[in-house]
Amino acid sequence: MSAKPLTNLEQLCIHTITTKPWAIEDAVKHFAASGVKGITVWRDALHNRDIKKTGEMIRNEGLNIVSLCRGGFFPAADKQKRNAAIDDNKKAIEEAEALGAPLIVLVCGADPAQSLEDSRTQIQEGIEEIVPVASAAGVKLAIEPLHPMYADTRSAINTLAQANDIAGKIDSPHVGVAVDVYHLWWDPHLKPEIERCGRNNHLFAFHICDWNTPTTDLLLDRGLMGDGCIPVNEIRGWVEATGFNGFYEVEIFSNKYWSMDQQDFLKKIISAYKEKS
Ligand code: ZN
Fold first, then answer.
1. Which terminal CB of the chain, N or C, has fewer other CB atoms within 10 Å?
2. What total of structural domains would you count in the chain?
């Protein structure tokens, strides 16, 4: 069953990293002029800026700030490193509050010096430690499962079932899940796990792009919707069936697209959003 075509841009959000060559001020101006309604801000885009004023600038241009990317990287065999990660996540929460971002996406981390089980335990402990700070700041946290090819260093959470399990164990209205089609499209349990995520009110964010064949770089060769083999429209249908009515966030790291004119790329994003998502 296919989801209805996206005839307007009301739910289109673009990540600052997607148009990385643009400074955030330029991205905001061009997104707003093109009718894009949402922006997810990567922390590096805020470097050397007054975060509060940047948030005001974004809202003044008529864009919704959907989330701040990213917190996480909790596990480490070394206790001092785990403590440093907690401090950095608290800093991310302060930044989100200053910016006016209601959500932080967590790339949870992994340490190849220990088992994935140990890393997952430390992820849960790390999130539990920052939940009170997040909740006091009015900021939610979304656990983003990453494709298993990143299980060595980027995340020990590799399936939506694992993310749903951890969100369930933490059991806080401030902790949920981000579903990214790039990381999860291959999973035979994706549909029932999206349904479960929705039933538990844990579906906080939905990220879209595509999987190129062949993929020439495991990090920096994401495709635009329609370029590859991910059934984005079908997965969007499962997400919508849960009652999700948030933003569809275009998150693409791509040397190919970063090297082209970003105005042309933005036009491509909008047509792929309407025709291939
Ligand atoms: Zn993502």
1. N
2. 1
Does 186 reside within a domain?
Answer: yes
Predicted confidence (pLDDT) per residue in 141-154, tens digit: 999 999 999 999 99
pLDDT band for 1, please (50, 70, 90 cuts): low
Could you tell me the CATH number of the domain that includes residue 36? 3.20.20.150
Domain that holds residue 249: 26-276
* Ligand 1 centroid to residue 212 C-alpha, Å: 16
Number of residues that make up the chain: 277
Residue from 205, 129, 198, 187 nearest 164 by CA: 198
Tell me the one-letter amino acid at 166. Answer: I
Rg (CA), the chain: 18
**Average of per-residue pLDDT across 268-272:** 98
How far does residue 183's CA lie from ligand 1's centre (Å)?
A: 8
29 to 41, 61, 71: CA distances (angstroms): 14, 7, 26
Taking the centre of ligand 1 as the mean of its atom positions, its distance from the CA of residue 234, in whole angstroms, is 18
165, pLDDT greater than 70: yes
Name residue 86's amino acid. Answer: I
- For residue 189, CA distances in Å to 59, 159, 238 come to 38, 9, 12
Identify whether 171 is part of a domain.
yes
Is residue 107 assigned to a domain? yes
